[in-house]
Amino acid sequence: MSQAKALRRGYAARVSDRLWPVIAVLVLATVASTLFAVTIGAVQVGPAQVWGIVADRLVPGSAAPTWTPAQAQIVWDFRLPRALLALLVGAGLAVVGAVLQALVRNPLADPFLLGVSSGASLGAVLVFILGSSVLGGLSLSVAAFLGALLALVLVYVLAQRSGRITPARLVLAGVALAYLFQAVYSYVLQQAQSGRAAQQVLFWLMGSLGGARWEMLPIPTVVLLAGVAYLLFQHRPLNALSSGEESAISLGINVTALRVRLFLLTSLLVGVLVATSGAIAFVGLIVPHTARMLVGADHRRVLPVSALLGAVFLQLVDVAARTIAAPQELALSIVTAVFGVPFFLWLLRRRG
Amino acid sequence: MTLTLHGVSLRIDGRPIVHGADLEIGAGEFVGLLGPNGCGKSTLLRSAYRALRPSAGLITVEGDDLVRLTPRESARRTAVVAQETPAELDFTVAEVVAMGRTPHKKPLDRTTTADELICAQALERVAAGHLRERGFTTLSGGEKQRVLIARALAQQSRLLLLDEPTNHLDIRHQLEILRLVRGLGISTLAALHDLNQAAEYCDRLYLMDGGRIVAGGSPAEVLTPERISQVYGVRAVQRAQLVFELKEDQ
């Protein structure tokens, strides 16, 4: 029995030894980066003042004011929702990337592979350029979400044959539709009368958290938390699926049903995220990879670590986007590309 | 009977591949499935683990209609070592073996120490305990095959399906895998290429040709010179030449 115990110990040690320290560090980094993000900006606000403002808003009168009303307004109305949205979007894109890489069994897969973000962008462009009155009073984010949904349905219909979805068809249909949607919104942009509106749209298309308000947070929060919770329960099917279709079937997974559910869930997440923040590239590609380097390929560990890592990463990216060329803001995809492209090329070469 | 096929026909994209196959595997038997390339061996195996649904006929596992079992239940009864090797993503050996526990786990179930013990013992049983921490993609062909057999063992099924488990292995690793599988005592159906090895290690053989099972029985009954000539188009000649065996100390 002692031999069995020793066997088991060796096994268990490997499984859990690095997960919790990594998670603890990432939780601290999430809090620290968020606090940092809220203090940074044209108007200086110290960390202690930030805590005070937040405490005072949550429980009025709980902190003696050491700040001006203007500072309080900037922190509470603009910087805090923006910082929280950065966490949500970063976590969501990273988790979607991790799931898609398992779904299509390709470590170079990324949330924008399925055409969903291009669909969302098309919806947003139409509202921007034509004005929401033409489209029956649709708000930008609803239009983006409907665009994502349209893309999702089209990709799904094109990728399936007699109820089966294969990764290759999914990717081909997604890429083809992405080009089509890009062509359509590029045409709309080119024809746009106002150059200023077109520029605004281009900025938004490349990702920006500048529009963050409190009322934008509930939907992404609920969708993200529910989605991640569901995916965590599916960590064994995800592992089985990333080891191959035949292998997953032989492990008792209903592969077709699982692929459909994962496809719907990832599309929903991408649609909601793109609707709030535009199309931010590379987060879904590089964060899951970094997570796997830290804790291995098991999805029980990859998913939570990707979520936290993505949250911290996008928080820092947003800080960089706000400060590098201040007072002008950079689009987030410019900043993520600076990190993402070298990483992508390194990955490509490493994989031979 | 652990596995039976009655008149099973299989199509891929509408094209008929296997016609009316009958086959039986008893408890603890090691049965070889032989036949030239493209004769339908792999397709037949795939139907037995539900990767392919028969267009006609009945498959039973331990007396139950395979179609009526849930995917999970079927995976608890049947484990597979397929030709496709897993992992574009770099799972460790321990993680690959742990996948064998998938059909025993519901979404909310935690991995228990009992699961970990089962996986650890499965790895020891294929003499691969030392590989536990290695990345699966870094293993040699023989090591990968042993690890996949360990995964199948962790599944704790009573039927094992192997699709050309000795493919791409050198002679010593081929013999090691065959001896290992034979020693497991689990009902096994293995698609094999080497006729001499199949004759030596299997209890019974089935021979396929052009999508049909043309013979079944003991190796001596199945592998007659006339039939080999018919199916493979080669002459079987008895000649004194080297025969390869594992050394006793290995």
Automatic annotation (TrEMBL), chain A:
GO biological process, one term: siderophore-iron import into cell
Locations listed in the record: Cell membrane
A GO cellular component entry from the record: plasma membrane
Major site of localization recorded for this protein: membrane
Signal peptide span: none
Record keywords: Cell membrane, Membrane, Transmembrane, Transmembrane helix, Transport
CDD domains registered for this protein in UniProt: TM_ABC_iron-siderophores_like (cd06550)
Membrane-related topology note: Multi-pass membrane protein
Any one Gene Ontology molecular-function term assigned to this protein's record: transmembrane transporter activity
Transmembrane segments: 20-43, 83-104, 111-131, 137-158, 170-188, 216-233, 262-287, 330-348
Family the entry assigns: Belongs to the binding-protein-dependent transport system permease family. FecCD subfamily.
Name of this protein: ABC transporter permease
Species this chain originates from: Streptosporangium minutum
Lineage: Bacteria, Bacillati, Actinomycetota, Actinomycetes, Streptosporangiales
TrEMBL record, chain B:
Taxonomy, superkingdom: Bacteria
SMART domains assigned: AAA
Pfam family, one: ABC_tran
Molecular function in Gene Ontology: ATP binding; ATP hydrolysis activity
Residue ranges occupied by any ABC transporter domain in the UniProt entry: 3-235
Alphabetical list of InterPro entries matching this protein: AAA+_ATPase, ABC_transporter-like_ATP-bd, ABC_transporter-like_CS, P-loop_NTPase
Keywords recorded for this protein, A-Z: ATP-binding, Nucleotide-binding, Transport
Signal peptide residue numbers: none
Gene3D superfamilies: P-loop containing nucleotide triphosphate hydrolases
PANTHER family on file: ABC TRANSPORTER ATP-BINDING PROTEIN, HEMIN IMPORT ATP-BINDING PROTEIN HMUV
Record protein name field: Histidinol phosphatase
